[in-house]
């Protein structure tokens, strides 16, 4: 039951100050966020890809309140693309973006987010890679899916994320599978009301499997966003049943979590993509990682005790 409490703390300025000021915080944050600048992250990209892994890069950021901040987020991704170009990694290094960073929550936010994200998607396509639109809370999803549909008219490889705990997701998955989209399926990391989302873990897991079956049987490209060993095994079986080859779907896991499993799946020939975040505004991202899994919270708590 700590997850909702931690998610609430992720939106608290007071908790942000307390956590950020703790001496132990940076070493622990480094487990999940390996750098703050492009210069720091490029060696990480090289190291992971040399190990046979793929990446999706996230420039972390929260609480965009002005159009200028949204443009700065756009420019940060364009800088990343410029640094990726000489590495010649193609789709082995793609990007994940949250439309809230591009101004989605501001006045006229739908149009502003589309305006800001389009050059990022187009620049990524020019260097042979892709962008995936991350899902946020349920109130933002109609806008996200509309932007996704618009971007795919010119850049059809643009992907999106769906969340298994939302009631609407099974219908969203059918539509996306029929349209041939790239789709990352995750359980969901936002506190959603019972009116729109499953609240029990077993219900979420069952929905995840139903939705993944739809994606595997469809025309698109499924991306399995999970660290759950049981769901990974089920995903492999669903892929075999659907007749999918190893390059017709992929696994995705977070940087800093189950690194040995990343390497094991890659060694077996699976496409294994590591979600790798970087940037200075790490607090919200870090707190959601703690909320998602009790083991992450225990790791942080032990570090506080041993280092404090």
From TrEMBL:
Binds 1 FAD per subunit. GO terms for molecular function: nucleotide binding; proline dehydrogenase activity. SUPFAM superfamilies: FAD-linked oxidoreductase. Substrate binds at residues 98, 288-289. Pathway: Amino-acid degradation; L-proline degradation into L-glutamate; L-glutamate from L-proline: step 1/2. Its EC number is 1.5.5.2. This is proline dehydrogenase.
């Amino acid at each position: 039951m700590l997850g909702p409490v931690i998610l609430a703390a992720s939106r608290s300025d007071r908790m942000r100050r307390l956590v950020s000021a703790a001496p132990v915080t940076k070493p622990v944050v480094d487990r999940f966020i390996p750098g703050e600048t492009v210069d720091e992250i490029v060696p990480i990209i090289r190291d992971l890809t040399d190990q046979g892994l793929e990446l999706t890069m996230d420039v972390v950021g929260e609480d965009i309140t002005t159009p200028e901040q949204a443009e700065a987020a756009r420019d940060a991704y364009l800088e990343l693309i410029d640094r990726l170009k000489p590495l010649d990694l193609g789709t082995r290094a793609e990007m994940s973006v949250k439309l809230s960073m591009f101004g989605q929550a501001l006045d006229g936010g739908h149009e502003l987010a589309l305006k800001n994200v389009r050059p990022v998607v187009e620049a990524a396509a020019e260097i042979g890679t892709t962008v995936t639109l991350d899902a946020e809370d349920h109130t933002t999803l109609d806008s996200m899916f509309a932007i996704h549909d618009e971007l795919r008219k010119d850049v059809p490889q643009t992907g999106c994320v769906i969340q298994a705990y939302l009631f609407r997701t099974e219908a969203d998955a059918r539509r996306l599978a029929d349209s041939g989209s790239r789709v990352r399926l995750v359980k969901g990391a936002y506190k959603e009301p019972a009116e729109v989302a499953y609240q029990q873990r077993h219900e979420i897991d069952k929905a995840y499997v139903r939705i993944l079956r739809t994606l595997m049987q469809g025309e698109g490209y499924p991306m399995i966003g999970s660290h759950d060993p049981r769901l990974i095994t089920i995903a492999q079986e669903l892929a075999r049943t659907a007749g999918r080859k190893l390059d017709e779907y992929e696994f995705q896991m977070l940087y800093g979590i189950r690194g040995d499993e990343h390497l094991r799946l890659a060694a077996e020939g699976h496409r294994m993509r590591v979600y790798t975040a970087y940037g200075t505004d790490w607090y919200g991202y870090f707190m959601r990682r703690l909320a998602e899994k009790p083991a992450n919270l225990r790791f942080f708590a032990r570090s506080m005790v041993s280092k404090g």
